[in-house]
Description:
Layout: H1 9-18, H2 21-48
Amino acid sequence: MVRIRAPSTKEVKEAFCRMPLLQWKFIKINLLISIISKSKGEMKYEKNN
């Protein structure tokens, strides 16, 4: 079995520094959309029950 090592904060910071700003904004927007759609889906589910 392969052990997946959690990246250290230094590695994460370096990755963010290398990542283009535009790409980072795009990822943040995608995360927001997924969170919003998830919460809307949960609300719909509650209304049906």
